[in-house]
Amino acid sequence: MQLDQRALAHRSIRKFTGNLTAPERLALTNVAQATASSRFGQQFSLIHVADPAKRAVIAAITHGDFVAGPSGDLFVFVVDQHRNHLLMQNSGQSLANLENWDAFLAGVFDATLAAQNMVAAAERSGLGACFLGSVLNDPAQMIDLLNLPQHTFPLLGLIVGRPAETPEAKPRLPHAAVVGEDTYPKAVPLGDYDARVQSYYATRSWGARDESFTSMLQAQLTADLAHRNEIGAILKRQGFNLPDWAE
Fold first, then answer.
1. pLDDT tens digits along 147-181
2. Alpha-carbon distance 111 to 77, whole Å?
3. Across the strands, what pairs with 153?
4. Entry pTM
5. Residue 32, Cβ neighbours under 10 Å: how many?
6. Whole-number Å distance between alpha carbons of 111 and 220
7. Do the beta carbons of residue 135 and residue 61 sit within 8 Å?
């Protein structure tokens, strides 16, 4: 059997020409809904953000001018236990199992898998996409902007469209550093990998800079986390009961 290798060509696309057609958008959102779901709880919701004013706010939150459009379609994937909460509110049973770590993580899994499934389908169809984990820079503002109810949380954004660029592929960590057989992978020297990453950033066709994998991690240790340190408190306000984090 010959495996489909097209996934190895993944690039994050930030420049697009035009928007998806309505049938394309429907097909991709159907793909997201068809994704495997933890316990079949279908614990995510998907919001297509078309309002230019809202897109501009999300662009400011994510520090990505391209998010404002007009090209490319913007989606936000939401951890969602609200819908199941409503279904069970008259059950006469405790709803604690829809508010705990297990419920929250199930929503994280469902939303993340759905987003990746949508990207894979888009790329197989000649489209490009870029994940926006940076919506977490200000989850509270995202909640207000998208009118998210209790027991939901905006996990990640995704912009999809027809690519107007072909960026170089970022080099990944050595296979042996990531993949283990029956046990955690042994540590491997990363000097050569650091050099490859540094060469990639120095020679790529856009945003060239002097950066290695190690220097990127170093910068993360002192990075401004914006409102990400407030995520525990925000989740508590959203009705999730996550001991040892939400306090």
1. 999 999 999 999 999 999 999 889 999 999 999 99
2. 6
3. 79
4. 0.94
5. 22
6. 25
7. yes
